[in-house]
Amino acid sequence: MDSATPAGRDRAVDALRALAILGVVLGHWLVTALVTDGGTLHTASPLQQMPWLAPISWAFQTLAVFFLVGGHVATRSYASARARGTTYGQWLRARLGRLFRPVAAVLALWTAATACLLLSGTGLETVQTLVKLALSPLWFLVVFAGLTAATPLVTRINPLWPLAVVLHVDLIRFGLGGPSWLGWVNVAAGWLVPYTLGAAWTRGELERRRAGWVLFTGGAAATAALVAWAGYPASMVGVPGAAVSNLNPPTLAAVTFGLAQCGVALLLREPLRRAMRRRVVWAGIAFANLSAMTIFLWHQTSLMAVTALGLLGGRLPGLHTTPDGLGWVAARLGWLPVFVLALTLCWCAFRAYEQGPRRRTGRPSRVVRVHRRPGPAAAKAAPRA
Questions:
Q1: Is residue 25 within 8 Å of residue 295, measured between CB atoms?
Q2: Could you tell me if 194 and 157 are in contact, meaning their C-beta atoms sit under 8 angstroms apart?
Q3: What pLDDT, on the 0 to 100 scale, is given for residue 333?
């Protein structure tokens, strides 16, 4: 992997993308519980019973970093495509094809699983819980695909413009008693903020460390103020039963928190570049990037598979019990290696939808013959027919 990587590739970008994906996966595994209650399954969260664990969501809600990297990579890719003479349609098909090919396998499996569950008499509430959890990653892909398609339009947008939209939407919703559905405008505007920051990174406007410090300190201070004095939740992920979710749809607090995360990401670029010089570390990051969509799309299915198989042994702590204490947290940490094993099995089964079929070892997939006109020495040495 190290020798196959182009010398000019910015490995810090790949490291940030991998860390963002792994943060989302670990966050879901730590704060999502499937609790059995009278023969049905429903979701619960330790943040509901233990709100003082909210800082966990600060570490693992890393979607802003993914949109930052996505905006940077997409704008850079589009500029390169234009330089090569590639049309917008060709570029977009290539970008979205890599994004949505793995989705087909998820939809096919869960369509079949849903039919089997309903035919077997499983309760509708349980089926709804499982399907919603399995397909929840798709909302992110829809938003990311929309922003990718709009890349030529957003390359020059100042991030302050979508930030202003989020601010005014929240003022109308929470300050003036406006309709709650207006918050869904923030699904596009909120994630457009880090995406346009990625475009600014491509333009070279965020190269100085000062930019990272400004984003980090400004975003952190704004988030702290919104949580302390404006009534926004401290958790940066949704909590069942909470009156307001910072993520569904995104609030101003989630966006300012994302600005702080983007600042940290920019400050980590140089340390990450140095770390990526180690071949073993780079191999792990490269593997995570090659399997990013497979990991993202199947991590919830892995959680549910372990939960379902665990029912054969009864109600197991940290898996089926209510997340209401530190004992549950300790037990859930013990289940993480099992979730990793289940996700590895999913990767073995479905990675071809993202990476393509594996080639046979020792045999090239494509032979390129280069025909040269032989020089005088080669002509003399060539055997006669």
A1: yes
A2: no
A3: 95
The C-alpha atoms of residue 340 and residue 153 are separated, in whole angstroms, by 39
User: In the chain, what's the furthest Cα-to-Cα distance?
Assistant: 92
User: What residue segments make up the domains of the chain, in order of their start?
Assistant: 11-357
Q: String of b and e for 353-374 (b: at least 16 CB within 10 Å)?
A: bbbeeeeeeeeeeeeeeeeeee
Residue 340, CA distances (Å) to 187, 300, 323, 336, 352 in order: 30, 11, 20, 6, 19
Q: Which residues touch 195 (CB under 8 Å, ≥6 apart)?
A: 67, 68, 70, 71, 147, 154
Sign (positive/negative) of CA torsion 233, 17, 298, 287? negative
Q: Tell if the pTM clears 0.85, that is, is over it.
A: yes
Interval 205-239: pLDDT, tens: 999 999 999 999 999 999 999 999 999 999 999 88
For residue 183, the number of C-alpha atoms closer than 13 Å in the C-beta half-sphere is 21
* Structure-token pair, residue 364: 């090239």
Least confident of 312-316, 325-329, 349-353, 363-367: 363-367
Q: What is the mean pLDDT of residues 246-273?
A: 96
